[in-house]
UniProtKB/TrEMBL annotation:
Membership in a protein family: Belongs to the UPF0065 (bug) family.
Keywords recorded for this protein, A-Z: Signal
Keyword Signal carried by entry: yes
Keyword Ribonucleoprotein listed: no
Name of the molecule in the record: Tripartite tricarboxylate transporter substrate binding protein
Organism: Advenella alkanexedens
UniProt signal peptide: 1-24
């Protein structure tokens, strides 16, 4: 009887310890937030705000790690192959998950099966900018200039949104323009300001500071409808380019196999961040439209965007097979 009682207590203690281990609150150590673009890019600026807020809410440091290159596929591949424990998270845009698989050959990950969608972050609207000294003041002026000077205008890109937007403009407006790719947006804008390229599509966070300092001028937002963040800037449709609606989305993903606990914790935290009016305004000041939703909504959205961007890229004639 005595030995049986001890055995029961020891079993109960073992079960208690096992239960405590299984139910240990996530996170228990620092989280790495992988940014697929260089420091100074729009996604980097947005990612650092999210990282700071996640740190304070989760009680663990969230460390930003920039892994730019290869249309953001280097970062995406790194996260896809990471241990699915919730300590390596990708802050992604449409570049590695919606566009790169169509723009590049042999992308080494599966958009749907190699990631766990966690939460939407929002949208990073793009604008069409040119050097301040260029003679075109509107999109119509730019198109007319390009038609009068075929093959002489060049556009820079620092990510897939810039690539696809430029190619779509060329295809839709029937103009012959030269694409000059860059590893990241900061380098592309530097050369635009320096006069090495003529125009580019860039995110608000990267472009607006230079618009405000009159180093570049903004001609339109890259969407069919005006942006609430820049209500005075015409949409591409209003500027005379029909069927042009390109936007950059932002969201958080981990490797395939993340536990429900990790997903729920991160999703709840990200939703809290975007619902905080002060943080939402801080992000808006960067040109970022912050909002989120459920994990399932984001997972469905990622699948839909993959198909949508495939259609855009095929229509522009830049798909790599």
């Amino acid at each position: 009887m005595y030995k049986t009682g001890i055995k029961k207590k020891m079993t109960a203690l073992a079960l208690s310890l096992f239960s405590s281990s299984v139910l240990a609150a996530y996170p228990e150590q620092p989280i790495t937030l992988v940014v697929p673009f260089p420091a100074g890019s729009g996604t980097d600026a947005v990612g650092r705000i999210f990282a700071s807020e996640m740190s304070s809410r989760l009680g663990q440091p969230v460390i930003v790690e920039n892994k730019p290159g290869a249309n953001a596929t280097i970062a995406a591949q790194h996260v896809a192959k990471s241990k699915p424990d919730g300590y390596t998270i990708l802050i992604s845009t449409n570049t590695p998950l919606s566009a790169a698989p169509w723009l590049m050959k042999n992308v080494s990950y599966d958009v749907v099966n190699d990631f766990t969608a966690v939460a939407r972050g929002g949208n990073l609207p793009f604008i069409l900018i040119t050097h301040a000294s260029k003679p075109y003041q509107t999109v119509k002026d730019l198109v007319e200039y390009a038609k009068a000077n075929p093959g002489k205008l060049s556009y820079a890109s620092g990510n897939s949104t810039g690539i696809v937007a430029g190619a779509t403009l060329g295809n839709t407006a029937d103009i012959d323009i030269l694409h000059v790719p860059y590893k990241g947006t900061p380098q592309a804008i530097t050369d635009l300001i320096g006069g090495q390229v003529d125009f580019m599509f860039t995110d608000l966070a990267s472009g607006i500071p230079f618009v405000k300092s009159n180093k570049v001028k903004a001609l339109a937002v890259s969407t069919a409808k005006p942006s609430a963040l820049l209500p005075d800037l015409p949409s591409m449709e209003a500027a005379g380019i029909n069927n042009f609606d390109i936007n950059s989305w932002n969201g958080f993903l981990g490797p395939a196999g993340l536990s429900d606990e990790v997903v729920q914790t991160l999703n709840k935290t990200i939703n809290e961040i975007v619902e905080d009016k002060e943080i939402k305004q801080k992000l808006a000041n960067l040109g970022f439209d912050a909002f989120s939703g459920t994990q399932q909504e984001f997972a469905d959205f990622v699948k839909q965007q993959y198909v949508l961007w495939g259609d855009l890229i095929k229509a522009a004639g830049i798909e790599q097979k």
